[in-house]
Write a structure and sequence with these properties.
alpha+beta
Length: about 140
């Protein structure tokens, strides 16, 4: 007896990867190119997904430039888009010993709120080891119903 065959729709994952200089200018460019790429993938500027992705890329890239910078080393942005399912944002830097945490800052602290924003916007986020050196901070947006 054979089991009935079900046909599943093919899934195409679109990927964009680019390295940027570990400078504020590199972080701004990462955000702009991410939005441009999302628009090319039919996620229009100003949509909820585009706006959330812009904030996530901006925060993760700023963190890579501020806390993960090693002189002479770039950071890397990777977007993985599975239409109708998920958008994954990976920002990698070469400073593996400095791991981000979403600690609640004090009232008078001038920083430390960025990862709270990431936690609020992303469906989930994590920090992964990067081989051979560094770390990757990953944020995912679920796009399904």
């Amino acid at each position: 007896m054979s089991s009935p065959q079900t046909r599943e729709a093919p899934v195409t994952v679109r990927v964009f990867t680019q390295r940027f200089s570990s400078t504020p200018r590199g972080a701004r460019l990462a955000r702009r190119l991410a939005l441009h790429q999302l628009d090319r993938w039919k996620i229009p500027y100003g949509s909820g997904v585009s706006d959330a992705a812009a904030l996530l890329v901006a925060e993760l890239a700023a963190n890579a430039v501020t806390h993960g910078r090693v002189p002479g080393r770039d950071f890397e942005l990777t977007l993985s888009y599975t239409p109708g399912l998920r958008l994954r944002i990976d920002v990698s830097d070469t400073r593996g010993e400095r791991r981000p945490t979403a600690a609640v800052p004090g009232l008078l602290d001038e920083g430390g709120r960025g990862l709270l924003l990431v936690e609020a916007l992303a469906s989930r986020w994590s920090v992964l080891d990067r081989v051979p050196v560094g770390k990757t901070v990953r944020a995912e947006l679920d796009l399904g119903p």
